[in-house]
Amino acid sequence: MAKLRYIDALALALREEMRRDPDVFLVGEEVAQYQGTLELSKGFLEEFGPRRVIDTPISEVGIIGLGIGSAMAGLRPVCEMMRMDFATPAYDQIVQHAAKIRYMFGGQFQVPMVIRGPSGVGLQLSAQHSQAIEVLFAHVPGLKVAVPATPADAKGMLLTAIRDNNPVMFLESLRMYFMKPDDLEAIQPGLSEVPDDPDFSVPLGQANVLREGKDVTIVAYSWMTIQALKAANVLAKEGIFAEVIDLRSLLPLDMNTVLASIKKTHRAVVVQEQWPLYGCAAEVSAQISERAFYDLDSPVLRVTGAFVPMPYAKNLENLAFPTEVDIVAAAKRALGGK
User: Fold this and answer.
1) Which one is catalytic: 16, 29, 97, 129?
2) Is 172 annotated in the active site?
3) Alpha-carbon dihedral sign for residues 285, 98, 275, 37
4) Residue ranges of the chain with pLDDT lower than 50?
5) Is 266 among the catalytic positions?
6) Which one of 24, 34, 294, 299 has the fewest beta carbons within 10 angstroms of its own beta carbon?
7) Nearest Cα to 143, choosing from 118, 168, 160, 175?
8) What was the pLDDT predicted at 337?
9) What pLDDT score was predicted for residue 122?
10) How far is 293 from 69, CA to CA, in rounded Å?
């Protein structure tokens, strides 16, 4: 096991897959000569050359269109969005073409491409650069949506996504990028560890019980998984033992792991960075209520971001997305104020 930062785990997976499979290539804005705006692709141009590490103009429509066409022709493009917010100009390409081509052509064409980049609340990056928009893609049949929370999942799920024969939206947590391994280990031992095996993979559609408990189930993904683990540590000091489930992917969505936990704890708190209306937490909450109603001892509670464009001011930004404080309060409400 190696202890890695999240960004280093992503870079390792991409580098290993590009070495293994000559059909894999990276395309995006400033990924080559500039080595990536966050230096994820540092050294890639020197190792793989300009035919496999390709700088593009500022045109997400062009990047995704190039990716779709090359994937249909048999290559495996990894299309980087400088911020996942910027995938919205190419939304037509993603949902009308990438997601539907295999179905519309009766399986004659596959679209093995990954659209990846940092997502979620930034660090004073304001309204157009600080959005959790995964629900826009999780709503669309034909796509897969990965939202890894840990360095191990970042590496293992990216490998799985690149090898998949379907388009995968791979939304990486910006706040996790540079979090130090020691800080992750302080939250939970082993949280920064990544297996050394170059073929280590994590399947899409398989949730992970990161912490076992008996009193309340906290369901989260991406950066909110880290906040849920912090909340579980706080609750444990007060004698409340929370089970923390990391969904890992939103499409496919593993509800069986969640429902099995509800049968044990009888209470659920679902957490997301997104705005509350029509979010992923709403879908998970609805499925819990529909499929495990008689196992519940209290209503399912949601913890979400505020329904506002993300403010620039730091004090307002901190009020606009959930933290472990909000999750702790929700868990206590689920327990009837215990």
Assistant:
1) 129
2) no
3) positive
4) none
5) no
6) 294
7) 168
8) 67
9) 78
10) 46
